[in-house]
Design brief:
- The chain has 5 helices and 40 strands.
- By secondary structure, the protein is mainly β.
Length: about 600
């Protein structure tokens, strides 16, 4: 039974839009207007797709299992004379395997889907609506119709904006952007165990958190806080809100969406129409750099919005992540959090494991003998036990474990495969000097992102293409495979229409020629009963128009209409004979 709060969401529609980009040909996708642009990690554009039915895309999430992308449209219908185009749907589904279009969620009333996440294991799409102050979900099976939308949380007065998915702990996180009581919360996927992890108790100057994302590789929580005035902050903490740190504080930007991969942080800025990036573990000298700037005059009123990275939404190895040393869980139950401005004190956002002592001066742990680590979580008695995930472990001179990684794995615990989806277009990946290196087959570039002979590939059939290429992006006079497919489809249609047009011309020409062969009598004649030439006009003479006479408009003289000349044209003598026959029939009549 759907609650009354969800009546505005019905009926549900599902829209599937085709895209032509292969599974491993992009690392990051950005939406702007009704388009999605795909990029490699080095900033190279690898493709572009548009959703014709959409107007202003905002949220974006990706299902790597079925290669399906979900997008939201926030376009609005303006009143009065300022009418603009707007989408009839709030959520779209874009798949990389099929090329079909059908109507997911019909836009009704004040619906405004700002952000979305998709849980692959339960096949559930979650989204936030800051206008209706709700978090909703919908079950989307691989086959069959999607389930009905269901309200998961009613957050009246909280203005939820950003939303993130914690795959390994089966939780969703979201930001409450109400300036009077801002916070970041989470709950289980079924809505239970709702808990506040960040509020003004932990971060005194928290103002308006607008975006949030989970870094699965390092089990960290990232967020953007739009501070009052011109500054903004990017912060990071453990998933329970402990050990938070300020990564960046800048001015003169308005960040709205946030994403993270294995190396970097990305955010979209509506002021400069730019996607910015910086290392997620920055050094003192690191500053944000422009990843992509949009200056298209056709989209002067639009800015880049939602961002999604493949690293952070692919199939996550939760078993490997859970082998790492457990971090402390420090969460504040919702019942203990006030939504007003009263202060709630907590001794510290961090505490030490294994009876370690917390130094409140510098907020660090002093570990007992036999333990080490930031939280005293590593036992020196068994320092290498389950420490290196894909490599061999040794203990250094300080008694700490160190890993020597095997094959293409890297990281402090050999937890990351640097070659995973690194080389594009069937390039072969290997590790040289600790970094991934690509041996290209059909392309060039550090990641094989640029095809060598695009004209030859575009002219060939799909059979001879690399396994991860379904289309070619050509420039100038070089056609893409999608263009070639369209040409093969449009050419027969054009020929059929041309043949039909010529047939119609032939039929019309036949009937026009047939009508032109009918006689047209337009000359005037002066007739007399006698044989004397008509040099004057006596009283017994009359002037008639043969055409009018035949229509019985001038006199009662019997007339006839010559037959159509269907076969052979009549001779001049035949015409004269018909004229004389007409005059003879007038002997006994007067006008």
């Amino acid at each position: 039974m759907i609650s009354a709060e969800m009546r505005y969401l019905l009926p549900t529609l599902l829209l599937v839009v085709a895209t032509t980009y292969a599974q491993s040909s992009w690392d990051l996708a950005v939406v702007i207007g009704n388009e999605i642009e795909y990029f490699a990690r080095n900033g190279t554009s690898t493709g572009l797709a548009d959703v014709e039915e959409a107007v202003e895309l905002a949220g974006i999430t990706y299902d790597d299992t079925t290669r399906t992308m979900y997008l939201s449209d926030v376009s609005k219908k303006k009143e009065g004379n300022n009418m603009s185009t707007f989408s009839n749907a709030s959520i779209f589904l874009l798949t990389e395997r099929t090329f079909t279009s059908t109507p997911l969620l019909k836009k009704e009333k004040r619906m405004h889907v700002d952000g979305m996440v998709f849980d692959t294991s339960s096949r559930t799409l979650f989204w936030v609506d800051p206008i209706e102050d709700i978090i909703a979900k919908m079950h989307i099976p691989q086959k069959g119709k999607p389930g009905d939308p269901v309200v998961l949380h009613t957050l009246t007065g909280n203005s939820p904006r950003g939303i993130a998915l914690d795959v390994c702990n089966s939780r969703i996180y979201w930001t409450n952007s109400n300036k009077s009581h801002p916070s970041i919360e989470y709950s289980n996927l079924d809505g239970s165990n709702r808990t506040v992890v960040i509020n003004r108790t932990m971060i005194e100057n928290l103002y308006e958190p607008v975006a949030v994302v989970i870094d699965h590789a390092e089990q960290k929580l990232y967020w953007i806080d739009d501070i009052e005035g011109v500054p903004f902050n990017i912060g990071r903490s453990n998933l329970d809100g402990s050990q938070w740190e300020l990564l960046l504080q800048k001015n003169h930007q308005q960040p709205i969406y946030l994403a993270v991969d294995n190396e970097s942080i990305y955010w979209s800025d509506s002021v400069s129409s730019t996607v910015w990036t910086m290392p997620k573990n920055p050094k003192a000298e690191d500053n944000p750099t422009k990843f992509i700037t949009y200056n298209d005059p056709r989209k002067h009123h639009l800015s880049p919005a939602g961002i999604v990275t493949r690293d952070n939404v692919r199939q996550i190895d939760c078993a490997m992540i859970k082998k790492r040393p457990n971090l402390p869980v420090l969460a504040i139950p919702l019942s203990h959090v006030t939504t007003r401005t009263e202060s709630v004190t907590i001794k510290s956002s961090k505490y030490c494991l294994n009876d370690g002592y917390l130094n409140k001066t510098d907020d660090t742990c002093r570990c007992k003998e036999g333990f080490t680590g930031l939280l005293c979580e590593i036992s020196l008695s068994l320092p290498c036990h389950n420490y290196c995930l894909h490599g061999t472990c040794t203990v250094n001179h300080r008694g700490l474990p160190e890993c020597k990684c095997m094959g293409t794995f890297s990281g402090a615990r050999c937890e990351r495969d640097v070659c995973n989806d690194y080389c594009l277009y069937d390039g072969e990946c290997s590790v040289r000097d600790g970094k991934p290196f690509c041996s290209c087959k059909y392309s060039k570039g550090t990641r094989c992102e640029e095809l060598n002979d695009i004209a030859e590939i575009c002219a060939s059939s799909r059979v001879g293409l690399p396994s991860n290429v379904t289309s070619c992006k050509c420039t100038g006079s070089k056609l893409s495979l999608s263009d070639s497919f369209q040409n093969r489809l449009l050419l027969p249609i054009f020929v059929a229409f041309t043949a039909l047009f010529l047939l119609m011309i032939a039929i019309l020409s036949y009937y026009v020629n047939k009508l032109r062969r009918r006689p047209r009598i337009k000359r005037h004649y002066v007739v007399s009963k006698g044989v004397t030439p008509l040099t004057s006009r006596p009283d017994n003479q009359c002037e008639i128009t043969i055409e009018n006479c035949c229509n019985m408009n001038i006199c009662e003289t019997p007339c006839f209409e010559p037959k159509l000349r269907n076969d052979v044209s009549r001779s001049k003598s035949k015409k004269k004979e018909e004229k004389n026959f007409l005059l003879d029939n007038m002997d006994d009549n007067s006008c």
